[in-house]
Fold:
Amino acid sequence: MSLIVRQMKLEEVDLIVDYFYGSSLEFLESLGVDPTRRPPRNQWKEMYEQDYAQPITKRRSLLLLWELDGAAVGFSTADKVVYGSEAFMHLHLVRPELRQRGTGAVAVRKSVDLYFGTLRLKRLFCEPNAFNEAPNRTLQNAGFRYVKTYMTVPGLLNFHQAVTRWVIERNA
Structure:
């Protein structure tokens, strides 16, 4: 498997917007996403443009692209970034045929390395919907440690839901 994880270029962010606009309502619900909370496409892209204009130490997010044999197969985003301290990671395989094959765990491990190195993190959290088995299993397989399950609104796109908090830590 020739999986490459790298920072996403600004001209590639449509992959994220298209993923959330092109997915079925049932799939979005499994992710804990409320479709009514998606910003309009042009506004979404403008938010990324503003963030990309900031130095890495001031960004609100960091976007990663997952490529398999030269084709985009998924992405990871980190938000709630506190440079030099912590961030919250999200993971998405956009090619359903690659799910439940170990691709996600490999991509997550590589993403973790990039997040820690680029953002100088001490800890990285991830809070998938507690009832969505795939990301919870992937995080465990990638070396994350279970912290707790609780009710919250984990992000701008999400509805109130049960999430499972996972963490991975490294010494500075």
Q: What stands out?
A: Helices lie at 14-22, 25-31, 41-52, 103-119, 133-141. The chain is about 30% helix and 30% strand.
